[in-house]
Amino acid sequence: MSKFRFKEDFVWGVATSSYQIEGAAHEDGRGESIWDTFCRVPGKVVKGESGDVACDHYHRFEEDLDLMAELGVNAYRFSIAWPRVQPDGRGAFNEKGIAFYERLVDGLLKRGIQPFATLYHWDLPQALQAEQNGWESRDTAYRFADYARKIGAVLGDRVASIATHNEPWCTAWLGNATGYFAPGNADLKKAAHVAHHLLLSHGLAVQALRADGVKAPLGIVLNQSPAHGATDAPEDLAAASLEYAKFVRWYMDPIFKGEYPDEALQWYGANGPQEVIREGDFDIIGTPLDFLGINYYTRIFASACGEKRPPDVHGFTDMDWEIYPEGLTELLTKLNAEYELPPIFITENGCASKDVLENGRVQDTERIRFYDLHLAALSEAAQKGVDVAGYFAWSLLDNFEWASGYDKRFGMVYVDYETQRRTLKDSAHWYSEVIAEHAGAEASR
Ligand code: IFM
Predict the structure, then answer these.
(1) d(CA 433, CA 195)
(2) Is residue 63 among the annotated active site residues?
(3) Mean pLDDT, the chain, integer
């Protein structure tokens, strides 16, 4: 009997992204991405690591598909590397790159696993960055829609869904306001312009795919957290409200309400997106969606007087992110009350831990506890009326964790990067049992 209560056709999946696992960075005509460039900048990535080889998934995808089948997942969320299929981000497409994703999708379908594709998980073709400052340029949004159209034409009848972007907040904020991610800009105004063009590109891509008759459900994936004040003092509550407006509402409001939140616009002041917003943009951005993907990891803990650490209730992950499962229920019920939402998928949820492979086993009990707590919180949200359609654990494999390199392990499957040998961790066996129990409970309903 499953303790998690989800709907009958609930989607149980695992997620990854192209640059984090594929490797084969210089093979079969793949173009450079901004992450290839960024990884070469000294000091940007821990130990100067890169996704050049990563999990070598490009060569080992069949083995990885077998692992998914062994886990019993019914869905796999992956991303397509734009520079692998269109090396310069415009013009000619690379047939070999496209063929890789066709093999991947067909391999999933053969194993009864639904392919959930994401078009952009941060690996912008470097040529677009060099020629027109990437997402700072409005034209990049149109280039993205062309690329989306090609993927729709090739894979649109075989994938279970297409998400335009993964976590545009990270692209805009970490890539352009703090410089922590590629392309490494530290300029608030750039970040605001980039965010607007990302949203525009999302709407343009959805419109283009629909115009072409693509039947796969279309959506976007946003990273979200509820925000709490460190205390109940009005200044702390105001800080929390502002962080929520910058992090969550900045993306939700344009998509579902046709405007940016005033509170955040005021905070941006002259650094806001006003110069790049054109008439009609919000109609494009607000094109209706078939689903919303939410990536949930932790909550925002805001204080008016700089950083404050939350109390240690459920502990912290190896990223030093607070484990706060109740935030998932809170976030989803709040969103459900505030917006007209399409069905929701939790498209990422997971934790990094200091895993050790010993005698062929990885006893990642912390990760099991993390998943267990979050699935319970998700189940509670479903009981409270949120239309929860599925859950994707982040991640199938240990992989390249961006600026943290390979130091942080998020996988259910341990990867020995020397040998590329994969080992199912205890959490993988646990997840497999949860999925089987749920299927059993459904069958006996
Ligand atoms: O690894 C990332 C992923 O690429 C996007 N969401 C958060 C994960 C963990 O940091």
Answers:
(1) 40
(2) no
(3) 97
